[in-house]
Amino acid sequence: MRNLNQDNITQAVIASFAGTTDPRLKEIMTKLVQHLHAFAREVRLTEEEWFKGIEFLTGCGRITDDKRQEFILLSDVLGLSMLTVAMNNDRPAGCTEATVFGPFHVAGAPRYELGADIANGAKGTPCLVRGTVRGIDGEPVPGAELDVWQSDEDGLYDVQHEGLAEAQARGVLTADGEGRFHFRSIVAVPYAIPHDGPVGAMLDATGRHPWRPAHLHFMVTAPGYETLITHVFRNESDYLDSDAVFGVRQSLVCDWVRQPDGSYLLDYDFVLKPSSASAA
Ligand code: BEZ
Ligand code: FE
Predict the structure, then answer these.
(1) How far is the CA of 101 from the centre of ligand 1 (A)?
(2) pLDDT of amino acid 278
């Protein structure tokens, strides 16, 4: 393997994976090289441009830590997160649709009793959230677990606030014996994804904004059902048609109803796909 040129280097790199024992890894590496090389050829990538690309990726690595995940942001703003969600979450009609996970979920969030205020001091307009978790045949899912997280009225998640002693606007609740849940929190508002790093610079350079429409995150789990990772979006929010991470699905957009006392009510039912069911 000497004197490789632009016409035969792709095949040489692909051949270098011949000894990969895991067939899926072999397929992924082969296709990755094929498509990367095709991309470089198609745009006739210069050395200077590729060096910029490497600097960009290095910047993503430098800014990433246990609170900031620039690579998830990159995947999100390129639509790759939503593409993988869409490809891997085909559910029968009637099931709640999935959307992007995002970088702000925290494993092991505090557990709350039904009816509790998960805002736990987060700034915002009070909101009661309630609904039922059901299966596709309408059966209630007793004891379904709801992991909920959202930003505060300043558009920041608790993990983005320096030195907060306790979790705010996030928590885990268990639905009752009829699959019903209710809890208090705050009204979601549109917010800008972190844009003070390389991904923000890329959005800026391409004339894109970093905003997401108002939403509340849910991860709903129950034995015998597929885990659902989704959001409920607020109908009157800005950016529903220009979400920076391409995550809006019409079925997830809902009215958050203002009450006479100025608080809000969000009623939303989740429909889970049984683990054994195939997509319709
Ligand atoms: C979020 O909704 O929390 C989120 C999703 C993608 C990128 C940044 C934030
Ligand atoms: Fe979010």
Answers:
(1) 7
(2) 57
